[in-house]
Specification:
This protein is of the alpha/beta class. The chain has a single domain, classed as 3-Layer(aba) Sandwich (Rossmann fold). 32% of the residues lie in helices and 19% in strands. It has helices at 32-43, 88-107, 141-149, 169-181, 200-213, and strands at 10-13, 20-23, 51-56, 60-63, 69-72, 115-116, 129-132, 156-161, 186-191. The chain has a four-stranded mixed beta sheet. It has a three-stranded parallel beta sheet with strand order 7-8-9, with helices on one face. It comes from Pyrocoelia pectoralis.
């Protein structure tokens, strides 16, 4: 079944009135509830008085990078490497799913300019983009899209552990440097003594950034 037609389950922190939305995408193999619980274990109960927090769960699919095991992943990749070619069809399919999720928020009265999520290729005009311990392939379609369509006025915030042994920090830095060379504005924050994980200080700073934007 096409991922675009699959069920994307979400958990949400909502308020009596929401004027903005943050869509927090979990890492490969995790789930929306899983990352939400992880955050709460680090910083305690969290909420924003006017911001809805969505933690969607990626569709379950065969993950080539893990020998074809079924995993909750946003898109399939051949290997965890900057040099690997992207699975463009897989990325396009999940892009369709994410667009539908964003459209639901817009239909509920939240303007696109008050939504924060990981983007740059499928959704232009967002308030902000953040990435935690992430990277783009060296020849990513995102870079091509920015060259062709131009760079949106959407700030980027990236965090990366200096001791990350799954996604080396140099991959994150290279991704950030390539994006900024194309005109993206933002900040890259290195986290000392940090593996491929979330840290309390990282989340506190991220939430402060969200509050200031929204």
């Amino acid at each position: 079944m096409s991922l675009a037609l699959g069920v994307l389950k979400t958990i949400a922190q909502t308020n009596s009135k929401n004027t903005a939305t943050v869509i927090f995408l979990h890492g490969s193999g995790d789930t929306g509830p899983g990352v939400c619980e992880w955050i709460e274990s680090l910083i305690g109960p969290f909420s924003f008085p006017h911001i809805k927090l969505l933690f969607p769960t990626a569709p379950l699919q065969s993950y080539t990078a893990s020998a074809g095991e079924m995993r909750h992943v946003w898109f399939d990749r051949k290997s965890i490497s900057m040099e690997a070619n992207e699975n463009v069809q897989s990325i396009q399919e999940i892009g369709t799913v994410m667009n539908k999720l964003i459209e639901e928020e817009i239909n509920n009265g939240v303007p696109l300019s008050n939504i924060i999520v990981v983007a740059y290729k499928f959704n232009r005009g967002l308030k902000g983009v953040f990435a935690l311990s992430s990277f783009l392939n060296r020849d990513s379609e995102v870079f091509h899209s920015l060259k062709v369509q131009g760079v949106p006025h959407t700030p980027l915030l990236m965090y990366h552990g200096e001791s990350d042994d799954l996604v080396p920090i140099k991959w994150g830095k290279t991704t950030f440097e390539t994006l900024t060379s194309l005109g993206v504005k933002g900040d890259f924050v290195s986290l000392p003594n940090t593996l491929h994980e979330l840290k309390k200080k990282e989340l506190e700073e991220l939430f402060k950034w969200i509050r200031e934007l929204l």
